Amino acid sequence: MKPEERNRSVMTITREIAHSEQSAYIEVPFEMPEHVEELVVSYSIESHGKQKAIIDLGLRDTMRVRGWSGGARKQFQVGLEKATPGYMSGELTSGNWAVLHNAYKVPKEGCSVHVTIQFLFKTPRWLKGDLHTHSVNSDGTFTLEENAAIMEELGCDFIAMTDHNTVSQNLTYPRNTNVLMIPGMEFTTNFGHSNFLGVSDPILDFRVKGQEDVEAKIAEARANGAKVVINHPHCEFCPWEWDFNVDHDWVEVWNGPFADRNARAMQWWHDQLVSGRRLVAVGGSDTHRPDPYVKHAMPCTWVYASEKTVDGILSAIDLGHVCMTYAPEGPFVQLKCGAYMVGDVVPVGETSHMVSFQAEDLKIGDTVKLISNRGLEKEIDVSADGVLAIQIDAQGTTFVRAEVWRLFQEVDMTLMAALTNPIYFGNTWIVPNN
Fold it and tell me: Which residues form the Polymerase/histidinol phosphatase N-terminal domain (predicted)?
């Protein structure tokens, strides 16, 4: 799927600087609009005499100086999560801001400074990444920098850092990457693993003796703002053997290459949906080291988020706006019912229950399955590479979800290639952590 363009606006302001203003600090004011996700500022200097003008660069927000690069840069970016070195990321509060200049050297004839300001707005879009990875901070061999570089090369947007029972990765991650680093920790016990996502230090001590301790650790992580994921619950090596009624937000149904453990997790998840639970399914590669099969963003988790921030992505996952593909290149699948998408509940009273399935990057021989609480609603063998669009009438169902299966020649096996969360119908759904 091609990256979706963000809404943006651009303005250019020219400030004439007279020789008499040499050594003065100058503000070029502008209004920061609402809902900006990233600010990009660049400038050029036009000297009006033979002498070269030297004009420094910085930024002020509504409260304070937000950054300064002097004469070292001609452009900077400030976003909600990341910023050019010398500038601080964070909230882009609407109101009066200013580009700052130090008129260090100004010709007698003066100079013109041309400032170009771009506002990139929060735009709902599909972002893709990996929600379960490891590094040298626990038992992996990848550095955090290597993890980020690999994900950037794959064209991914985010990666969750989930080393076992430690949080050092959340304090030392690289800032010079376009990949959003989501803080996390894999709460690793002898009887099951769980990811705590979204906070740098979810619990003070991981050690547990029994069920009561596990519940206390999860409660501590929850109180500190973490999202809780039950990982690979039906893995043959480290399944979830604690009570499944522990407080949790999501379940990892797809861990690494699709195998029997994932099929068992999928069946458990499906049974929960049939019982009336609105439970979000996620995936993660669980990559530790170079491996011919266990690779970054395999599976790849796609999230329809309003902004590329930790909170934006985790909030969107909470809504169930999630689908998974075996790799970043797809096949990418969407389900819609009118204005509603995966994760949404179509309320009682909606006259249409027509669910639209749309897919990109399918291959001849793929099998598309639309599944509800009643079982298999529709199955199609794909006859041409590329896109496919079909509809089914979901009247009488409580949810509909989609799967794509593919024959992978490398292993001579038919395996999951894509999976969506459901679209739900009705108003009686039980959310796990309520």
Answer: 129-191
